[in-house]
Amino acid sequence: MALAHGGLTPARTFRTAGLALLGLLPVAFLVVFFAWPVVAIVGRGFSAGGVDTVLGDPQTWRLAGFTLASAAASTVVALLAGLPVAYLLARVRLPGVGLARTLVLVPFVLPTVVVGLAFRAIWPDGGVLPLVLANAFFNVAVVARTVAGLWSHLDPRATEAARALGASPWRAFRTVTLPALGPAVASAAAVVFLFCATSFGVVLILGGGQYRTLETEIYLRTVDLLDLSGAAALSLIQFAAVLAALALGAMARRRRENAVRLRSALVTARRPRGGEWWTVGAAAVVLALLMTPIVALLAESVSGENGWSLAGYRALSGTGANDALQVSGWTAAKNSLAAATDATLLAMFVGVLASVVLVALRRAPGRLARGMGETMDAALMLPLGVSAVTVGFGYLITLDALPGDLRTSPMLVPLAQALVIIPLVVRMVLPVLRAVDVRLRQAASTLGASPARVWREIDLPLTARSLVAAAGFGFVVALGEFGATSFLARPDAPTLPVAVATLMGRPGELNNQMAYAACALLMVVTVAAVALIDRFGSVRGHGSVGEF
């Protein structure tokens, strides 16, 4: 007997080697276009000296405290607003629930400059309250979709038993339902906190010079003050907070996946009864409030000093008052579409490949393979929480070492946008791939199908809807990406969000109207894309934005 039972057969050895080679591609992409630039900028900051001074400055910790406090406040608001909506999506069968599922996702994928200007239309002077509410506005969808995904699998008999024993609806929810939803709530809270703590565009527009977070301070020190040591120190503080949030989110996600496996069947939705109508009413109020900034922005886009006006839309064919832009608004829109398309294609290639490798590693025998998979999964999430300014500036000091000097390449912006999209693609595609019955793959392999044919004949048809949804979702996120793009886009080739920020920084009513009109166009494209995402997306709660 050449090999003992459980040993590595030549076929298994070949598959393991092939899996390792496939895994190297997404890892290499992360190393070259994320880890290298970040390490380079932080290393340059340390070499410049002064990091100890920044870390010892009380102002640094006041910034960190405000960042964490505002992010925590936004997380609490998002949780309170998202739970009634999660119930509506998971357990209620009423006309309009499908529309609600689409509407709640719209804020999450709106460009940050759009949301900033929408809240500025309501609170012209900005401040802490609109800043907190704007970040919560973004993330209600994360809570609603994440919690709804688990809630739709919970056995309702435990709650019904508590009610039969005399518990009030609130007590039954607090003592039975909420603990069961704990993994999903914790996972959502960790992700929302991460997004709020690294928010850039909203803070820049609504905070002004009075309220700054670590993210905007890193931008100020890097771009305006050229204080690399200070930016490096702040990046380290932010990075520590991000790692903590990602660790908590990963732990909660594992608990959630275990819970879902124990309740594999979806619970049939039904009409609300008795006190449940109060929850439905609360969800309706939340949805109405989510639409308020959007309506305000649309109204502002057709407003002028003398009443209703379409001057802003007509001005998109030009460069604004006093040539505020170097290109027309429509050219900026074309730049956005081109960059978002390139970023989506790149992110889909890397993200889907990474998801395939993660599934294989999870099912591979041995702790080493599973440990590698968990490490790779966590590493893929890091770009969501690292300062876009740090990454962008790192590009400018490192990518000249690569053939062709990518610093002057039109692919620089798509590369940065792809880094933001890849974690989202993985979180949408990975749960669906994991849900594919492994026995189908084994049967196809037994019948002689190659791994490539197994993927083509088994995995691809079952995950096609999720892949389409991930591509659409990634496209709209790239379309509105502002943090890295604002730093990397050239003045003669801005994207539409960058053009909007430029217009808002220039005087003149026409520039203001043009900025709001451009935001309205971005919002229309986003809403249309979200409708397609939900149409082609997978079964409720799966493969959606909530799968973080």
UniProtKB/TrEMBL annotation:
Subcellular location: Cell inner membrane; Cell membrane
Domain ABC transmembrane type-1: 64-247, 333-534
Residues that span the membrane, as ranges: 21-43, 63-90, 102-122, 128-148, 180-208, 228-252, 277-299, 343-361, 381-399, 411-433, 466-489, 514-533
Keyword Cell inner membrane: yes
Any one biological process term the GO annotation gives: transmembrane transport
Keywords per UniProt: Cell inner membrane, Cell membrane, Membrane, Transmembrane, Transmembrane helix, Transport
Keyword Ribosomal protein: no
Membrane topology of the entry: Multi-pass membrane protein
Name of the molecule in the record: Thiamine transport system permease protein
Lineage of the species this protein comes from: Bacteria, Bacillati, Actinomycetota, Actinomycetes, Pseudonocardiales
